[in-house]
């Protein structure tokens, strides 16, 4: 297995908190990065219960401000807003039901406690911007994988579910903090491209044929790949609290993104970039797999992915590549409009240049990906530092 550079150092914050020890063990499994991550399969790791104050979790709603607008780096402030910072509701088949109670003078935490007493669940979004403890764990996952992450906390009464069966466009790392939860999952045998958008109900794709249930007790950790249908409910007789670290795999942080950087470094024509974008969305879905740029051997992997993409282009005629090419994203890459009709020739020339380039050139492309991931990380940490009290 190719090691992650400084992997143990990245997980130090998880090692230091007993509540997240199982998550650290899951991420360190010898087969996780090569055999489980984005493979279509889930994985779980049992753990031991650690001290976690459920009441303090709800108090986060009154102790923190709204983080609306945080994605743009400028939170609007003010008290937490329902539907933005938190939600109160439950899955009551065949529909999701929103808690009808109002947020009274007692604040959001009081409303959350009233909702729980009525059998509704509480969802606290962007919990990494409300708790230093959760921020440390969230940023450890982010540093380990080199991919953006955020934390949502779910508090659920016995026998209830916070959400309807669904799929996510992000990978989920769930840690059970208190109580117990049963997850019903559908798995695939091999990598399945993530959905173009999140869907309200579980997909019936033939690729997700395997179904299983995973029971998480306090301290346990679970990985659910993006696109895998799932649902969960409180399987115990006390409140369940779990945190989900959602790991986003945006296009610039996939193998397509790394190849776009390599094509740019090789001076490839705009048609090569347009063709690669279109192929990633269709004939070459492997390009949408996360690029773990921090792994030893990543430059060699980039060459292999370029060769695979080259093989796809070679198997298509000019009209087919032209039909798949898309101008979406060219402006983002700082490229001028492409010459029509040249997508296949441009892609062949550009991908061959990447395959034949020195390893140092491919390493430079990976540094572009790493710089982008680092920028996202630094902005998230600066925001947390500004929002969290000393």
From TrEMBL:
<dbReference type="GO" id="GO:0032453">
    <property type="term" value="F:histone H3K4 demethylase activity"/>
</dbReference>
<keyword id="KW-0223">Dioxygenase</keyword>
<keyword id="KW-0804">Transcription</keyword>
<dbReference type="GO" id="GO:0005730">
    <property type="term" value="C:nucleolus"/>
</dbReference>
<keyword id="KW-0805">Transcription regulation</keyword>
<comment type="similarity">
    <text>Belongs to the ROX family.</text>
</comment>
<dbReference type="Pfam" id="PF08007">
    <property type="entry name" value="JmjC_2"/>
</dbReference>
<keyword id="KW-0479">Metal-binding</keyword>
<dbReference type="InterPro" id="IPR039994">
    <property type="entry name" value="NO66-like"/>
</dbReference>
<dbReference type="GO" id="GO:0005506">
    <property type="term" value="F:iron ion binding"/>
</dbReference>
<keyword id="KW-0408">Iron</keyword>
<keyword id="KW-0539">Nucleus</keyword>
<keyword id="KW-0560">Oxidoreductase</keyword>
<protein>
    <recommendedName>
        <fullName>Bifunctional lysine-specific demethylase and histidyl-hydroxylase</fullName>
        <ecNumber>1.14.11.-</ecNumber>
    </recommendedName>
</protein>
<dbReference type="InterPro" id="IPR003347">
    <property type="entry name" value="JmjC_dom"/>
</dbReference>
<feature type="domain" description="JmjC">
    <location>
        <begin position="115"/>
        <end position="262"/>
    </location>
</feature>
<dbReference type="GO" id="GO:0051864">
    <property type="term" value="F:histone H3K36 demethylase activity"/>
</dbReference>
<comment type="function">
    <text>Oxygenase that can act as both a histone lysine demethylase and a ribosomal histidine hydroxylase.</text>
</comment>
